[in-house]
Amino acid sequence: MSAIPSEFSNVTAITKANIYFDGKVVSHSIVFADGSKKTLGLIYSGNYHFGTDKAERMEIVSGTCEVKIDASEARTTYTGGEFFDVPAKSGFDISVTDGICEYVCSFID
Question: Which domains does the chain have, with CATH numbers?
Answer without folding.
Answer: 12-108 (2.60.120.10)
